[in-house]
Amino acid sequence: MNAVPIVFDLDGTLIDSAPDICAIANGVLEEIGAKVLSLPEARSFVGHGADTFVRRMRAARDLPDADHDTLMARFLELYEGQVAHSVVYPGVLDALTVLATRGHRLGICTNKPFRPTEIVLAHFDLTTRFATVVGGDSLAVRKPNPEPLYAAFEALGGTGLYVGDSEVDAEAAARAGVPFLLYTEGYRKAPLSEVPHTAAFSHWDEVPELVRALSAQSA
Fold first, then answer.
1. 3-state DSSP helix/strand/coil percent for the chain, to nearest 5?
2. In which band, very low, low, confident or very high, does the pLDDT at 158 lie, cut at 50, 70 and 90?
3. Residues ≥6 apart with Cβ < 8 Å to 126
4. CA distances to 82, 135, 213 from 17, in Å
5. Phi, psi of 199 (to 5 degrees)
6. Who wins on pLDDT, 44 or 48?
7. pTM (global) more than 0.70
8. ∠ at Cα 212 (206, 214), nearest 5°?
């Protein structure tokens, strides 16, 4: 497992984007006179992509199914340029630098739509850090289906390990048959003991040595 490819989730793993997603949702809701979401509500809806987020938002505000396409279109319109409230988690940049220096090829596999992913990566000057990016609309399926992970690893030239923060990420990694590093400070909803993982970490400073340890165990 020496210098294997590493694929990362984005929202809740590399960046905390929930405040921006909440602001986008509330912009949509305010336009139709509906009650806005709290940040904890918005955070709890993240994970399965924009379509599921909007469905959960509708359900929370008892909005008709017939409104879904209109709300979804407006949500995506606002989503594309909203980055003002997102932040990179502490230690991410240093960890990515160390991993790249050690020869790991890095990629992204996220359920966030591709265009907003491109924009937020550029906003934080992260674009060149990743050799491939698979978004939530890059394929016909999204995580936890393993196909997006397979596509990311194929683009990186081999199978490696996946780093994420949620039950969705854990299931995708399990179905793809790859080791999973779980960031405990993201958007996970279930107790840590109920989320399958190879190793867990609470700060990104831990990641380079976790990767080294996994490499040594498999060597």
1. 50, 10, 40
2. very high
3. 14, 88, 96
4. 9, 15, 30
5. -155, 155
6. 44
7. yes
8. 100
